[in-house]
Amino acid sequence: MAQSPADVRKKASEVIQPLPGKMPGSENDSSALVALGKKLYFEKRLSANNSQSCNSCHQVDGGKAGVDQEPTSPGAFGKRGGRNSPTTLNAGFHLAQFWDGRAADLAAQAKGPILNPGEMAMPSEAAVIEKLSAIPAYPKAFAKAFPGDAMPLTYDNLAKAIAAFERTLVTHDRLDDFLKGNDKALSAAELKGLETFVAVGCTTCHNGPAVGGNGFRKLGAVNPYKNLSDKGRIEVTKEEEDLHVFKVPSLRNIALTAPYFHDGAMTSLAETVREMAWLQLGQKLDDGQVQSIVAFLRSLSGKGRKGKESIAMLAPADSVSATAMP
């Protein structure tokens, strides 16, 4: 017998909370700082050949979901990176940035791609500042955003400004409405999906306000992932227990941010759900369970946000992870 909305809400609220209206740190962001950060986020001149901006890989214009929907993203000179570009939406709620957590916060993350030879490919911090200083609007904008600084136009301040803009990228969805008491926010199918999501054990990793993003887990905790070439967080910590460990992705906007996994290997949300249950929980979900969970996950799409949602036909249950299963 299906549980009542109140019963589902009570159980779900033990592990999932509404997303706060503002990101941590945003209370200190001035309008001038956010405006500068937005300009920099879309600034292609931050790349060596003026072809790439933050938005090239993390598209937020036109209501997009903070990704480019590529398995891996091409850099300024066409070379693709080794990992899927995660969404910048709600990223400031995460415990760290990048799949391996090597950046502690949004500002630290913003510094990396600009100087990465395979991404925006600028040769040095000094070269970035020299380039921006030659654009008349930037010295004035930095001075306005950092009025107390003797030298406002610095690489650290550039990163702080981009982070301030990214802290505005908070989404609001129907799960939040439901958790806050609106019984009609979720359809019957979505309500059943939330019930299934909790019952199956997905909330072991995907919990908290961002429904993930708050911890690190080995990919292939029960059954091995098919691609073992990326060693994951061990490259950062040098600790053996971090082999094939990655940050748990947030599931907010997950239906709009395909493809999935750190290597962008899967395009179907349904098959990703099935695969994750096998890899992390050792469970072979039936088609009904998978479709139910997918229905729930679609309720996590931010209002007004859009992406190329993948609702591919399910493969037969016994065909998934055939190479990994005993």
Summary?
The chain is 34% helix and 2% strand. With 326 residues, the chain is mainly α.
Q: Care to describe what's here?
A:
The protein has 12 helices and 2 strands; from the N terminus they run αααααααααβαβαα. The longest helix is centred in the middle third of the chain and has 13 residues, at 188-200. Strands 1-2 form a two-stranded antiparallel ribbon. It is mainly α and 326 residues long.
Descriptive key words:
12 helices; 326 residues; two-stranded antiparallel ribbon; globular; mainly alpha; 2 strands; 2% strand
Write the layout of secondary structure elements.
Elements: H1 5-12, H2 31-41, H3 54-57, H4 106-115, H5 125-133, H6 137-145, H7 155-166, H8 174-179, H9 188-200, E1 216-218, H10 234-237, E2 245-247, H11 269-281, H12 287-298
Antiparallel strand pairs: 1-2
Helix pairs in contact: 1-9, 2-6, 2-7, 4-7, 9-12, 11-12
